[in-house]
Write a structure and sequence with these properties.
By secondary structure, the protein is an alpha/beta fold. It folds into two domains: 143 residues, Medium-chain alcohol dehydrogenases, catalytic domain (Quinone Oxidoreductase, Chain A, domain 1, Alpha-Beta Complex), CATH 3.90.180.10; 139 residues, NAD(P)-binding Rossmann-like Domain (Rossmann fold). It has ten helices and 15 strands. The strands form three sheets. Strands 3, 4, 5, 6, 7, 14 and 15 form a seven-stranded mixed β-sheet that branches. A six-stranded parallel β-sheet has the order 10-9-8-11-12-13, sandwiched between helices. It is globular.
Length: 329
């Protein structure tokens, strides 16, 4: 038996979340069983747990949680052996396959990434999908030729998980970074992570011109919507925007002007189905470049019992940085 958070829907269509004692026979199919030590809460997890977006969960009952870190308990795959430390991000877990907010998980070996040297399972989940996505964004900026000498980088949603880690990685790599936030009280926190300039979200949230003053060589955007459109309009010639979120909406009310008049590149970042070599490169960067002390500054630790309440707080925008969930007995 093991403990997990279970989302269920009854015959009347009523959505419920509860802490349950589960049995190994209830675990889904997979060739590796992992004893989960740490998980985390992302925006997508909060939507699933609260039922604010019930379409996140594709089948019931479901254990939510798109991330976990732990130790292999049993394996029929030659890729992993009992005792191996592993992490998982994405691949539909917590949506259509039981995820990480339980003490055990059974998954496909293809979905697992070996825990890199130099990082603990807890720190890996302090980073989680948010940190891994931030690393994908920074790597994409570099792959498109954006260097510290190219000019400043702007990061939206900077007090959130992706934004916080992006600030750390970009400042570590020598970039000058502007942080966009709707929480001006977080200025000291953002500057500690590496921001050199703090900009109000309101500066980007209203409809702007097709082309604004050219300011940025690169961008990490978690918002989408009007904010992303305005970021694109204010890019310098040859600038690169990495788009990885939709916190401000799925629409993109922009024009083609930045792309055909300034040669701006809009690079989409997918963390869910990302190929293994790209994942490994991102995680190697995180293990190398993120100082554990800085990570601790942006991380809050909770238990499974706290997940529903903290999920509501995440959707209300009152949680900064990252939340890790301890599943260690």
């Amino acid at each position: 038996m093991f403990t997990g958070l279970l989302i269920e829907k009854n015959e009347a269509g009523e959505y419920g979340v509860s802490l349950r004692e589960l049995d190994d026979t209830m675990l889904p199919e997979g060739d590796v069983t992992v004893r989960v030590e740490w998980s985390t809460l992302n925006y997508k997890d909060a939507l699933a747990v609260t039922g604010k977006n019930p379409s996140i969960v594709r089948s019931f009952p479901m254990v939510p949680g798109v991330d976990f870190a732990g130790v292999v308990e049993t394996s029929s795959s030659p890729e992993f052996s009992p005792g191996d430390k592993v992490i998982l991000n994405g691949w539909g877990v917590g949506e259509k396959h039981w995820g990480g907010l339980a003490e055990k998980a059974r998954v496909s070996a293809d979905w697992l990434t070996p825990l890199p040297e130099g990082i603990s399972p807890k720190d890996a989940m302090s980073l989680g999908t948010a940190g891994y996505t931030a690393a994908l964004c920074v790597n994409a900026l570099e792959d498109h030729g954006v260097t510290p000498e190219s000019g400043p980088i702007v990061v939206t949603g900077a007090a959130g998980g992706v934004g916080s880690v992006a600030l750390i990685l970009l400042s570590r790599a020598g970039y000058k970074v502007a942080a966009v936030t709707g929480r001006p009280e977080e200025e000291e926190y953002l500057r500690t992570l590496g921001a050199s300039e703090i900009l109000p979200r309101s500066q980007f949230s209203e409809k702007g011109k097709p082309l604004e003053k050219a300011r940025w060589a690169g961008a990490v955007d978690v918002a989408g919507g009007q904010i992303l459109a305005n970021i694109c309009a204010s890019m310098a010639y040859g600038g690169v925007v990495t788009a990885c979120g939709l916190a401000a909406g799925m629409s993109f009310p922009a024009t083609v002007a930045p792309f055909i008049l300034r040669g701006v590149t809009l690079a989409g970042i997918d963390s869910v189905m990302c190929p293994a070599p790209v994942r490994k490169r991102a995680w190697d960067r995180l293990a190398r470049d993120v100082n554990p002390d800085r990570l601790a500054l942006m991380t809050k630790e909770i238990t499974l019992r706290d997940v529903p309440e903290v999920s509501r707080n995440i959707l209300e925008g009152t949680v900064r940085g990252r939340v890790v969930v301890s599943l260690k007995s």
